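Q: I have two molecules that I believe assemble together. Could you output C-alpha cells for the complex as a whole instead of separate predictions?
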Amino acid sequence: MAKSTSNKVSVPGFLANGVSAGIKGGNQKDLGLIFSTVPAKVAAMLTKNTFRAAPVLIDAERIKRGIARAIITNSGCANAATGKEGMEDALAVSAAAAKQLKIPEEHLLVCSTGVIGKRLPLKKIESGIGKLVKGLNEFGIEDAESAMMTTDKYPKISIRKGIVGARDITICGIAKGAGMIEPNMATLLTYVMTDALIDTKALNTVFHQVIDSTFNSISVDGCMSTNDTAIILANGLAANNPLERAQARLQRFREMLTDVLAELSQAVVKDGEGATKLITVVVEGAKSKSDARRVAYSVANSNLVKTAFFGEDPNWGRIIAAIGASGIPLEREKIGLSIANVNVFSQDTPAVVTLSKLKDVFKGGNIEVRISLGGGDKSYAVYTSDLSYDYVKINADYST
Amino acid sequence: MAKSTSNKVSVPGFLANGVSAGIKGGNQKDLGLIFSTVPAKVAAMLTKNTFRAAPVLIDAERIKRGIARAIITNSGCANAATGKEGMEDALAVSAAAAKQLKIPEEHLLVCSTGVIGKRLPLKKIESGIGKLVKGLNEFGIEDAESAMMTTDKYPKISIRKGIVGARDITICGIAKGAGMIEPNMATLLTYVMTDALIDTKALNTVFHQVIDSTFNSISVDGCMSTNDTAIILANGLAANNPLERAQARLQRFREMLTDVLAELSQAVVKDGEGATKLITVVVEGAKSKSDARRVAYSVANSNLVKTAFFGEDPNWGRIIAAIGASGIPLEREKIGLSIANVNVFSQDTPAVVTLSKLKDVFKGGNIEVRISLGGGDKSYAVYTSDLSYDYVKINADYST
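A: Yes, here they are, computed for all two components at once.
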C-alpha cells in the first residue's frame, strides 16, 4: 500500500533527517526534522480534542501566519496533559531548533507523539537537535518518517510527480499512526511536502477537502488523539503557473494530493494496531452525506463487526444490527447489504447464500461492505480494520 | 454480585421452567417460560434498533394492552433479520405456546436471543413446548434463566422482599447479557416478576425511570442489539394497598426495583464478554445530564481506556484524551480526574503521583474513575468492563 521507499525519495527544496535522541531507548530514531530551504506556504488541520497537546497549541497559533519552514517531531512522548511545564518544554524545543536552523521561531512547527501525560525528556531532545540539524539532507525524508513511528509496523511514504501549471511538480507525504485513529481529525501525524507554487487560500481549501475524504474517513478504534496534526508545506520552487482558487489547473493538484493522502490513510488503517484486514464500508442511497457517514461509522466502529472479520466468522447479522443502531431514521425494507459483491440481505430478508460462500467472503484481506439505504443519493466511504488479539496486546501494555 | 441462587427463588403467583429443545445442541437449556397464574400488569422497554427482531415487533404491539401473563424465550437464535419467514416463525411459537398454556395469544410475549440472521428451528421449539409447559413450577425461575443464557458465564438473578402498601411484596429479576451491550436500551433480556399491586401507569413510569438509571447506564462494547427487551410483570397477588403515580408508597417500590435492576445490570457488566474488571465512570459538575452522559460514555466506550485497564497499565492519559474527544465544550483548566480516589489530573496539570501508586490503582478489580468538569451540577454514572483477549476470542468465532 505505502510505496516501498528508496533513498531516492526527495522533494525539490526540502531537506530532512531523523536521529535517535534516546527518548524511546535503544538506538531507535525518535527525533525528526523536515526543512524547506525557502519559506513555504502552510496549511494544517489539528485535533479538535479539548486536551490538545502543548505542541498543537503552539502550531495552531503559528499556522495562522500562512508561512512555515520546518517541522520538528519527537516520538515516545506526546507532551499532552502536561500542563504549564509541558508548554515550557515545547517552547524550549522550538527555541533550540529554530536557533540551530537560523530561522524565526514562528516559522517552526513542533509535533510530538507517544504516551500522554509524561513530560518531554528535554535534555535528551536538546542535545539531539545538533546532530539532527547537521545531518539534514535531500534524501532524509525516510529517516524523518522513521523518527515519528510509534507502534507502526512499517513506514508510510507516498510520492507523486506530475505536470501542473506547465511545470513538473512533486508531492510527497509521510504519516505515522497505528492506533487512536478516529474520524474527527484522524490524522495523527501527516506531513506533506510539495514544491508547487500555490496561493495560501487555495492550499488551505484543497488541503481541507482532501483530508476530509482521506484521513477523516478512516477508523481503527474510534479514539481521537490529543496530538492529531496534518500539515502541508508548499515551497513554490517548481515555479509553475501559480495555483489559485477556482482555477482549472488546481484540479490536477487536488488529484495528485488525493492520491498521496488516500495511499497514506489506507496504509494507516492496514497498519492499524493488530489489523489483519482492510475493510471498506461504503454507504450509498442516503438522504444526506452526514447520514451516510453516521451509518458507515456505526458499522466501522462496531467491535462486534470487527471481531467477526478478524475471526473470519460470517456473522453478517452484526452488520445489520450496527446499521440499525446508527440512530438514523431508516426504512428497513429498502436497505441492502452486500459483502465483496455478494448480496447478503435486501428487502428485509436474508439472501440465499451458502455458508461456504459466506465464509469465503469473510476470508478476504481487503473486503468491501456495501450498504444501500434506498432513501436518497448521498454516499460515504470509511476505511477500517478488524479487531484482533494483537490490538488488545499492543494496547494493554503501552505506557510502561 | 448477582445473588447466589438457590431452588428457593420464587415469586407468589409465578411459575417458570426451562428445558433443552435442542436449539443450541447438547443438553443445554435453550427454551424458557415465565407464567403468571393470573393476568398481570405489564410494562416494557424495547430496543430502538431499526432491525428490531420479529419477536420484538410482536411484543411491541401486545404490550400496548397493558396486560400479559407469560414470556417464552429461546436462546441460540435471535430471529432477527429473518424477514417475513422470521415473523411467521415467531407467530407460530406464540400460537403453540398460548394453546398449551390456554391463554389468549395477546397475553403471551415472545423473546429470542442468539445469532442474528438465522431462521428459528421451529420444529424443535414446537416439540419442546409440551415439556416446557408441563414442567412449569413455583421454583422454576432459575431454569428459565439458564435457558436464556448465551455467552453468559453465570446466571443473573436478583430478588428483594419488603413491605410496601402494608403487605409483604417480592420483586425478582432475571437477566441475560454478556456482549452487544450498549446504553440505548442496554438490556438484552431482563424480566422482572412481582406480586405487587400497582396501577399500569405507575408501573410504566417507575420501570422506565429505573431502567434509565440501571440498564441504560452500562456498556460492554457499545453495540446495541436487535433484541434488547426489558419486561416487568406485576400480578397484584400481594394485595397491598394499590400503588399509583405520585404516591409516597411508590417510592419504596422504586427503591426495591432499583436494587434489583442495579444488581442485575452490574452483574451483566461484570460478566461482560471477557471482562476482568468492573469500571465505574462517574462524571460530575456538568452543565447538563446529557453532557455528563456523553463524557462518561466517551471514556467508558474507549477501546484504548478499556485495554489499559485490562493490562493494568496506568496510562491515565488515555482517559484525558477520551474526555477531550467527547465533543462537549469543556474548560480544560476546570477538569479533574481521580481514579480509585487518587487525584491524577487537575488544573490542566498531572498530579504528583508515584508510578507504583498508579500501578496499584489500575490493579483493582472494581475501579471508580471520577471526572469533574467544573461547569455545573449535573452528573452521570456509567458501568463498563475492560477489553481483553477473551472479548476478541469470544466474538471472533461466535456464529459458526
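A: One point stands out. Residues 14-270 of chain A form a domain with the L-amino peptidase D-ALA esterase/amidase fold (CATH 3.60.70.12).
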